[in-house]
Amino acid sequence: MAVRDPAAFSTIKANIASRAMIMEQIPKQLADFLLQVSDNKYIILLLINFLLLLIGMIVDDISGSVLAAVIFLPVINQLGIHPIHFAAIVGVNLGLGNVSPPCAPMLYMAGGVSKLSLDKYIAPTLKFLVFGHLPMVFLVTFIPELSLFLPQQLMGVE
């Protein structure tokens, strides 16, 4: 059976990488390292934001979500951060990484589809990233109520 769907192939690669990381205990080692850097929850969240941004620059959202769950879930659990809040943090950071230069896979794909040169769309995009997307990353990260409001109202999540 051949895998022809790029999303399925990407998910398979991420699952293989996550299993390898689990066998090598990389999530535990990273959790120990991050918790040694600081005992302040917000500093660790800033570090996680930075690492998620880097992951988003390199891989797509699906693979990045799988990798982030495997790598950061031990840290998140130890800090007492709600998993739904963490999922929102992962989503906004990977989204920002996918459109952030220098890698920006989604940005270059959109430029190719629209047949625009890089200089035509990079300046407006950077303005949006700095004044639109980056503040949203910080709001979602540091105000958990923003990502937990609807789940609490609709599903009774605590």
UniProtKB/TrEMBL annotation:
Domain of life: Bacteria
TM annotation in the entry: 42-59, 66-92, 128-150
InterPro entries, A to Z: DctM, TRAP_DctM
Chain's role: Part of the tripartite ATP-independent periplasmic (TRAP) transport system.
Principal cellular location given in the protein's record: membrane
Membrane topology: Multi-pass membrane protein
Molecular function GO labels: transmembrane transporter activity
Domain TRAP C4-dicarboxylate transport system permease DctM subunit as annotated: residue spans: 13-146
GO annotation, cellular component aspect: plasma membrane
Keywords: Cell inner membrane, Cell membrane, Membrane, Transmembrane, Transmembrane helix, Transport
Pfam families: DctM
Localization annotation: Cell inner membrane
Protein name per Swiss-Prot or TrEMBL: TRAP transporter large permease subunit
